[in-house]
């Protein structure tokens, strides 16, 4: 039955690819002053907007985004997060992995097929550019004639973010200096690009009058207008730089039905936890007293944050959209309660009838110990004591075009498959906090099954372990399990869910815990796998996988211009 | 006699080139917090410093600067201002003209010969990057055994600048927006990288405490310590973003002896006017009352500026260097008095015995009308109603490597050789303020003599004309004359100084006036000629010359990576 369904789904997919429409976007990317939280700041916009335009498409459509870099002196790359880029690994938009950066003045065409319905996102994937405001939603609908396993009246995208007042250059300068200057907690949380900084908190004003202007319409609360009695599918996306969030709608339950493009066996909650890089669809029925509005809120969890909650209006028509709810915004969950977050992680399973069963066994197991380290006095994040750096020539180019002659382009020594499981104490600051930097990568045998165990540990601070949302490019993985403490290769795999595991592209690793994933290395290309916290990736918390590079087609010249590709392009 | 001298000088030059030393620098360029005027701001530093290290060399030396771009997401290019780059046009460092930008993470080697003694500078030549702090001095001494035509005891470089608190991204965003947001007057003037913003002027403080800190040693006044009775050669360099300056030393006369690497027939002044891109050597004797210190000051001329004077200490040893002079700083000249500035321009002539006579006639005359215009609602600067833009493929690459097949790489239509001399009223806002954008260039016949007349006019504001310092890359030019009003091709050339004109690489065009230049197109390459005001060039005030492109040697691959050079480099 499942096999038949898979076959049918594949068939539908094939038909759609044949019939898919081309959706052509022209985007101009530049710096403009914006006041998303009432504080005026230079933000990166797409066609004047941050968040950028929502991409609306149907399964099988071909998306073409013709992107012009008008940032002046700053390069650019955009990643289409959750889109697997089957057959188009050069369109993944990961600077240093799949392409050279897009130069100021240049126009770059991303072209790819959205081969699965679901909720995805796009965002800058270059330095810490994402948190300057370059992000947006992707919503892919099912083909005509195909129905989804749940019903709703309206479909809405809501993208959640956190927001800093300092520029990415200021933040990066602190992170890469000795002594280390941490970016700190964000100043605001944004809901669909709108937040509200308390201007009176600027006890002292900035150089310019009007830098904080509470009456600026750009920072009026985001409003979702609902018709009483109707059911809304809300496609939640978190693109936060740092924060793990809880999202809730005052007085309303929400039923989780989709995660990262996969149907979830429905479960109902008062609030949903969402980590940077994740998407969820929730169903909400407008069934409360319609004479008033309600709060939609986001609040920070897993960090003892100073960032105030994000607020928006769940507006019952025909009340005025900007009428404040008569109640105080509901409090979010306790920031340090891990149990409810772990419980939600465990609750997310594939929906009956939509289960893609994982291979029963894997060909390779790699354990990734996540640690904070010191390298030459600088603070870095590492995986198995290796802190990731990018080479001058992106891997896809180096591997595909050097024809086995890439030795000089990046470190050829394979990175470690694990750490010292017996002696390492994940509950303490490491005895030796040193690590090394490397641009070496994991080469995967094509079509093999790989297990990844993400192991969390104590940071450089006593009694502290952070939550890391890890995101895999080019694939979905099965989430086989979560656990507390140190992963035990002898006993923990017996607890894996091989029956109905959800497939995702981003997954949290809870503090002092582990998360086990399985994926099939069946997508020719070079793919990043990294913590989705912008500053953590910047500080080295990631790896790259290669598989089937010999099957990759000819790379477009627009991906080149760096490393070994500074020469004349011969068609 | 002059011919013999020229021959001897050439001979000495040839010997020096043969014997020249290699001076190898390794520079790391990054963003760091600096407080040059007591206000903390992200600045671009070289090896941690802004201004960067002074390059000290001897005529004939080969300079190698190995430059690593650690700016994160921002590209880079450095121009060696005043160095003609004979035989090395690819080392001129002009992004879009002679090279592709240097990518973050890349290392680029500039290599060139300093073939003439004198005072030069280096600075970023990419977007508006220069005014983020990326600049420094170059001082080239005469060969051993050669003496200069004046005597001094000590030799010092002093680089003058103006300073903004906003980032280059913020400034550029305003300049390229509609409505136009002008960058405004700089907040401070810096002398050798140090200024002093009045913290109490921040009536309101910034978000962060300590943003303005008057006790920060980074902004203690620059001090030039002098020994009573000794004569100092001060090599003054102006790298201002906007401001024309007057420099003076309280109670001391100064004798001008060098300009842009050429000996000047000495003349003595109380204050010297210096425009962005110019260098002067002045001789100052420490012959005043040695029991006290004196002020060195810069002040803005030609604009009704709000920028307070720059202050430094002329410190008589053994007084304490930081002891303030007992007097008020001397007032600068009236900002709007054109006459003294024109008089100084006219006073600068080649030194007897060091005259390079210009060719008696020219082969081509090009008149450049400087105007402020509107294009599609945006404010731009233009030359003959053409506002300059850069192509994707730098000219040097496009011209040299396309082998006559560069048609598609930039506009092939020659730009205009002049404007409507009879009908254009330079004293009024133009009737039609429209202009067009173009990346077309002036192709010069190799070894011909070219006259350039720079004609100033009214801006978009009634009764306003601005001073523009124009800088030529790859050549020195003879300054044949200056005049007020509209240049008259029939009568004004008769007034040219063909006897002892100074050679320079940067020259002011005074308001409502003209400046006439002559140069020989004998340096194979592609060379920018532009207003040295950073925002004016950004807004299109420049042109490019090409000459002898077929004589240019093989371009290094490091210059490539943009436009048509995004392909594999084949050695």
TrEMBL record, chains A, B:
Signal peptide extent: 1-20
Catalysed conversion reaction: 4 L-ascorbate + O2 = 4 monodehydro-L-ascorbate radical + 2 H2O
Top-level EC class as recorded in UniProt: oxidoreductase
Pfam families reported in the protein's UniProt record: Cu-oxidase (PF00394), Cu-oxidase_2 (PF07731), Cu-oxidase_3 (PF07732)
InterPro entries: Cu-oxidase-like_N, Cu-oxidase_2nd, Cu-oxidase_C, Cu-oxidase_fam, Cu_oxidase_CS, Cu_oxidase_Cu_BS, Cupredoxin, CuRO_3_AAO
Any one GO MF annotation of this record: copper ion binding
PANTHER family in alphabetical order: L-ASCORBATE OXIDASE, MULTI-COPPER OXIDASE
UniProt record similarity statement: Belongs to the multicopper oxidase family.
Subunit structure, interactors included: Dimer.
Stated name of the protein: L-ascorbate oxidase
Upper classification of the organism: Eukaryota, Viridiplantae, Streptophyta, Embryophyta, Tracheophyta
């Amino acid at each position: 039955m499942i096999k038949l369904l898979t076959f049918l789904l594949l068939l539908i997919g094939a038909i759609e690819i044949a019939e898919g429409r081309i959706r052509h976007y022209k985007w101009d990317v530049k710096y403009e002053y914006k006041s998303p939280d009432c504080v005026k700041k230079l933000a990166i916009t797409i066609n004047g907007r941050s968040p950028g335009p929502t991409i609306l498409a149907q399964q099988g459509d071909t998306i073409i985004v013709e992107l012009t870099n008008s940032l002046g002196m700053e390069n650019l790359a955009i990643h289409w997060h959750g889109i697997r880029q089957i057959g188009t690994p050069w369109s993944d938009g990961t600077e240093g992995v799949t392409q050279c950066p897009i130069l100021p003045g240049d126009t770059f065409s991303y072209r790819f097929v959205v081969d699965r319905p679901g909720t995805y996102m796009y965002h800058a994937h270059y330095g810490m550019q994402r948190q300057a405001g370059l992000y947006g939603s992707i919503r892919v609908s099912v083909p005509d004639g195909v129905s989804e396993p749940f019903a709703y009246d309206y479909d809405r995208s809501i993208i959640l973010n956190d927001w800093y007042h300092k520029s990415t250059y200021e933040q990066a300068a602190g992170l890469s200096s000795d002594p280390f200057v941490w970016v700190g907690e964000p100043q605001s949380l944004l809901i669909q690009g709108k937040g509200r900084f308390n201007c009176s908190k600027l006890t002292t004003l900035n150089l310019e009058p009007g830098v904080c202007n509470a009456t600026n319409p750009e920072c009026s609360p985001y409003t979702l207008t609902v018709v009483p009695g109707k059911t809304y599918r809300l496609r939640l996306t978190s693109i936060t730089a740092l924060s793990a969030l809880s999202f809730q709608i005052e007085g309303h339950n929400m039923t989780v039905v989709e995660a990262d493009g996969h149907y979830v066996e429905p479960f109902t909650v008062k609030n949903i936890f969402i980590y940077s890089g994740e998407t969820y669809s929730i169903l909400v029925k407008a069934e409360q007293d319609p004479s008033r509005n309600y709060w939609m809120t986001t609040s920070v969890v897993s960090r003892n944050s100073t960032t105030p909650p994000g607020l928006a209006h769940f507006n019952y028509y025909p009340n005025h959209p900007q009428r404040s709810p008569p109640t105080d915004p509901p409090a979010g969950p306790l920031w340090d309660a891990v149990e409810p977050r772990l419980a939600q992680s465990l609750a997310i399973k594939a929906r009956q009838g939509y289960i893609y069963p994982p291979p029963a066994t894997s060909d390779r197991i790699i354990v990734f110990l996540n640690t904070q380290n010191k390298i030459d006095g600088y603070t870095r994040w590492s995986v198995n004591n290796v802190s990731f750096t990018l080479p001058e020539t992106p891997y896809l180019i180096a591997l595909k075009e050097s024809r086995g002659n890439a030795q000089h382009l990046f470190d050829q020594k394979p990175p470690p498959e694990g750490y010292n499981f017996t002696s390492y104490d994940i509950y303490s600051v490491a005895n030796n906090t040193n690590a090394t930097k490397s641009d070496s990568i994991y080469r995967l045998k094509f079509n093999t099954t790989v297990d990844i165990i993400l192991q969390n540990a104590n940071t450089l601070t006593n009694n502290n372990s952070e939550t890391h949302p890890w995101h895999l490019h080019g694939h979905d993985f099965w989430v086989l399990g979560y656990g507390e403490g140190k992963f035990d290769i002898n006993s923990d795999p017996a607890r894996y869910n091989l029956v109905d595991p959800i497939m995702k592209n981003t997954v949290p690793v809870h503090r002092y815990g582990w998360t086990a994933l399985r994926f099939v290395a069946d997508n020719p290309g070079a793919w990043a796998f990294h913590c989705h916290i912008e500053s953590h990736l910047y500080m080295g918390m990631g790896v790259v996988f290669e598989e089937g590079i010999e099957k990759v087609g000819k790379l477009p010249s627009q991906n080149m211009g760096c490393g070994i590709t500074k020469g004349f392009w011969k068609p």
